Amino acid sequence: MAATNLLPYPAATALHPLMDRFGRRHTYLRISVTDRCNLRCVYCMPPQGIEWKARAQILSFEEIVRVARLFVEMGVDKIRLTGGEPTIRHNITRLVEQLAALPGLKTIAMTTNGVLLMEKARALKSAGLTRLNVSLDTLRKERFEKITLRTKFDHVMAGIEAALDAGFQPLKLNVVAMKDFNDDELLDFVEFVRNRPINVRFIEFMPFKGNGWKPTGIVPFADMKRTIEERYSLLPLETSAAVAKDFSIKGFAGTVSFISPMTAEFCEFCTRLRLIADGSIKSCLLFPSEVNLRDALRDGTDDCELVEMIRNAVQLKMEGHSAMAELTTMDNRHMVEMGG
Ligand code: SAM
Ligand code: SF4
Fold first, then answer.
1. SS3 state of residue 212
2. What is the tens place of the pLDDT at every residue in 254-289?
3. Is 143 touching ligand 2 by the criterion CB < 6 Å?
4. What's the pLDDT score for residue 287?
5. Domains along the sequence of the chain with CATH
6. Which bound ligand lies closest to the C-alpha atom of 203?
């Protein structure tokens, strides 16, 4: 691993953006605030569940904000809160408020399963959350229960409306497309956004240890697009998003996007880093190496040394991810811990 030559803090942070060995500059941090969840999506966590971390193993808000501040000083301008399920972390709106106060941070987003949005959407908006993604893989109640192993479909549907009412417009809707499971609902989701300011995003199913993934489980982006184009005319949108392919449909309030980590890699343009709830920095979702900051945060390590640890974590990033077959056997974390 390449060592980094540090300038004294704060010059080290301000002058040097977070570059990896391949010249990618990192401006987007995803923070998983908990490994716990109120759903049990079959593609995200193993059926037997995972061993949840004890409270003491999870970063406090103070620790999260300290690390986030360092990232922002090194050029991160977008943070997304995720989980597990971020809305179940006690006082999550307070964390949003604290992050919103960081000078230089332009966007604070959240990805949620939507179960608690009826109660929390307004408070999250008032706290300073700027963007919201809701994950929902089916518009059919019985199927929802098969995917999530929980009976919260009505909560999520009401949560989506509550989020729109609270002003999260456009709202993003994440749909993991799985062959012979929910791929017969692509057109229903498109219809769902006809009169709603929602960007529906179809995501290719990704392999993680123990999540039942098979190559035949993927619905390739090109097939999804072809199916939708049999009924609708998709007009390409010029957006700055490096990972999504975005389209509008004439007369629709909503838009349609595709995210294709499996069939059309976007590693070359990746600007993302991840801070996991236990304090580990992951430079790639699909690669196991990590640098843990928690002990350093608790033993008096100064900001300059933390910056060096963060830069070292970024140097661990590979040019691209491994072949699909290897991803299923790789000793990586479960998706529920990493937050997507
Ligand atoms: N609980 C929140 C939620 O569901 O939105 C945040 C965490 S969840 C792990 C983040 C995103 O990862 C969700 O949109 C979920 O659908 C997606 N996801 C989980 N497992 C996946 C997989 N195997 N392939 C693709 N996306 C996945
Ligand atoms: Fe929970 Fe989100 Fe994973 Fe579903 S996808 S189990 S809601 S963390």
1. coil
2. 999 999 888 877 788 889 999 999 999 999 888 888
3. no
4. 82
5. 26-338 (3.20.20.70)
6. 1
